[in-house]
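step=encode ok
step=design start
structure_in=
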């Protein structure tokens, strides 16, 4: 016989006690709640059902302590919601605990049964009781790279590891690639969603691969794990974070709190919807779900109880798994209040910033949503850095050779001061040229238009405005001149990214010329098209060495390219200052037809430390060099295929070949030309 006590409202979800397990669920609209206990992972019916009456209800919380239960117990909920005029059949659905630390039942799970009005007990997912062990920060402390020194590498964990060893889990296989990332020189990885998601949440028989379809905010995705047990699953991801910390690499998670896999009012009831849809979602007077996510629903993130759940999730990943930061998918959607109205001071961000366990965490956000809200430099969270889409577009347009691009290029190199007006030193700008959402770097210079037919949506999906250029031939070619130009353009773009003020982010595989065949929306491509290729014959090793080289230079010159502060001095003698040039010194050309940007960064007013020239024009152009106290050293020339030893420049002028870049450094910076690193 099962013994049940009143239990406690906190902590939320399931937690181990001295006598068994405490369960706590938020359900503000419930007439009653049932706890379903299952014997095994594959059980098609519960071994017992515990109905919670008003004695187990404290305000919005339904809770109970069940004696003689242990870690690893399988459970779920059923909730009888009061008549809400939308759907009165949710009480038939077996529902996941929104705070599940473990999820099982994938072998029998059927999404379509969660869509129907009949019960889904024989095909439901089940929650698993897990420990809440904290991460071992004593032995594996956070790297805590400053924002100024941060270089982000965005990757999809399965795509990054799929072609390595088929017998191991993604998280385990990733450990073998940490030395590669360390050698590349990045400081931080940003993982596309690893929250447990529904791979079957996809139209036309496709597979949801990227994972922007969460069914839970606390549990690692089952396809990335060995799945020996829920406890071992948690330890498996902890191990990944531990090894990254040992290698001085931060781990940031791409998190999806703006919507769920449950879709609109006609979608499946997997968790939140069946528990309390009027609480978690925005629902209009017409009883339809309000949506600015593009996925059928939008989370009501600024309601108190929803804020609590989101913050509990963030704390779980930060404190129990040890992750170092979060990137909010469509993060500005979290600023919306009732009727989707934007809030100037959204409580969710205020609460996050006040949470002690999140005080030393990095926060990044997309500043747009599908409802047209776009807040970049004015994002409503003072501690959150934002994806700078204008940086991406302006750099692409400049190197593509568009008109009216030189001034915008200048602005982006300086840290987008036209956008981040309040950030006088380091802008809160995440600078990027490519990301998972769009062309790879190789495809950006290979295709004029998207080629998404493999997605089975008649090439209608994906962005049509890519600012890409094929350089004369659409797709791969044997033309050596075109291929050389494409290689040079990739080098130009990555150099422009890494000399710019802000926080650079590079996309998985761009360093080896990874292509997706012109697909700019590979969300459903769990195949060679979407995977990293580790075969050396398929890698551009010249480009890889160039990436490493430029990253080393950025790190060496971080106080020049990305200073953390300016000295508090009236003279500003050591302040890095930008001086813009053209075919004459201190005479830049910002006209609409200009395709060049040249500048020096000086110590004080008159002492240049670096000179950079970017020529997107179709012909070579000569530029004068400012007078330097020491020798000028040519360090990078993208017109040359090989990395070379620094070359002393004795001439007063340098010639930049068509669609090429030069990076020239004063010998003062290194002491001598042989002391580059």
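sequence_out=
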């Amino acid at each position: 016989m099962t013994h049940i006590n009143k239990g406690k409202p906190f902590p939320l979800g399931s937690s181990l006690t001295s006598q068994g397990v405490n369960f706590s669920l938020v359900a503000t609209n419930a007439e009653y709640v049932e706890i379903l206990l299952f014997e095994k992972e594959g059980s098609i019916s519960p071994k017992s059902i515990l109905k919670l009456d008003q004695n187990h209800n404290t305000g919005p919380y339904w809770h109970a302590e069940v004696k003689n239960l242990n870690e690893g117990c399988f459970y779920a909920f059923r909730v009888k919601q009061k008549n809400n005029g939308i759907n009165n059949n949710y009480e038939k659905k077996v529902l996941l605990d929104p705070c599940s630390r473990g999820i099982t039942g994938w072998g029998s799970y059927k999404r379509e049964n969660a869509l129907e009005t009949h019960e889904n007990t024989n095909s439901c997912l089940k929650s698993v009781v897990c420990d809440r062990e904290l991460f071992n920060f004593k032995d594996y402390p956070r790297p805590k790279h400053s924002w100024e020194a941060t270089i982000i590498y965005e990757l999809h964990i399965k795509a990054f590891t799929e072609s390595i060893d088929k017998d191991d889990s993604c998280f385990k296989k990733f450990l073998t690639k940490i030395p590669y990332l360390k050698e590349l020189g990045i400081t931080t990885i940003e993982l596309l969603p690893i929250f447990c998601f529904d791979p079957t949440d996809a139209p036309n028989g496709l597979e949801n691969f990227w994972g922007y379809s969460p069914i839970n905010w606390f549990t690692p995705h089952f396809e990335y794990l060995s799945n020996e047990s829920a406890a071992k699953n948690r330890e498996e991801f902890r191990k990944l974070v531990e090894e990254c910390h040992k290698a001085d690499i931060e781990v940031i998670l791409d998190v999806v709190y703006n919507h769920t896999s449950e879709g609109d009012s006609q979608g499946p009831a997997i968790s939140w919807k069946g528990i309390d849809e009027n609480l978690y979602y925005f629902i209009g007077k017409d009883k339809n779900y309000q949506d600015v996510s593009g996925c059928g629903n939008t989370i009501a993130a600024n309601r108190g109880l929803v804020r609590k759940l989101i913050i509990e999730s963030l704390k779980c990943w930060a404190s129990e798994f040890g992750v170092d930061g979060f990137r909010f998918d469509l993060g500005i959607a979290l600023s919306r209040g009732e009727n989707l109205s934007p809030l100037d001071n959204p409580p969710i961000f205020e609460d996050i910033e006040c949470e002690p366990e999140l005080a030393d965490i990095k926060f990044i956000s997309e500043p747009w949503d599908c409802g047209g809200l776009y807040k970049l430099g004015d994002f409503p969270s003072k501690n959150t850095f934002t994806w700078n889409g204008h940086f991406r577009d302006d750099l692409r347009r400049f190197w593509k050779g568009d008109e009216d691009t030189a001034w915008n290029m200048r602005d982006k190199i300086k840290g987008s001061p036209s956008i981040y007006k309040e950030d006088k030193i380091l802008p809160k700008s995440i600078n990027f040229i490519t990301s998972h959402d769009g062309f790879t770097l190789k495809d950006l210079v290979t295709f004029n238009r998207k080629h998404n037919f493999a997605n089975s949506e008649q090439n209608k999906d994906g962005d049509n405005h890519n600012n890409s250029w094929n350089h004369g031939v659409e797709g791969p070619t044997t033309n050596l001149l075109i291929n050389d130009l494409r290689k040079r353009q990739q080098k130009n773009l990555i150099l422009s990214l890494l000399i710019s003020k802000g926080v650079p982010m590079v996309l998985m595989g761009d360093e080896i010329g990874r292509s997706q065949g012109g697909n700019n929306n590979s969300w459903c491509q769990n195949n060679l098209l979407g995977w990293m290729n580790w075969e050396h014959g398929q890698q551009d090793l010249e480009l890889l060495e160039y990436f490493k080289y430029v990253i080393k230079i950025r790190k060496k010159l971080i106080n020049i390219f990305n200073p953390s502060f300016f000295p508090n001095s009236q003279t500003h003698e050591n302040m890095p200052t930008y001086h813009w040039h053209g075919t004459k010194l201190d005479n830049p050309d910002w006209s609409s037809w200009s395709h060049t940007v040249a500048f020096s960064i000086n110590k004080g007013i008159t002492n240049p430390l670096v000179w950079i020239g970017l020529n997107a024009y179709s012909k070579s152009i000569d530029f004068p060099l400012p007078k330097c106290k020491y020798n000028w050293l040519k360090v990078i020339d993208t017109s040359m295929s090989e990395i070379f030893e620094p070359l002393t420049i004795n001439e007063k002028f340098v010639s930049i070949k068509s669609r090429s870049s030069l990076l020239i450094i004063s010998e003062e910076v290194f002491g001598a030309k042989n002391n580059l690193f």
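step=design ok
step=annotate ok -> The two ends are 71 Å apart (CA to CA).
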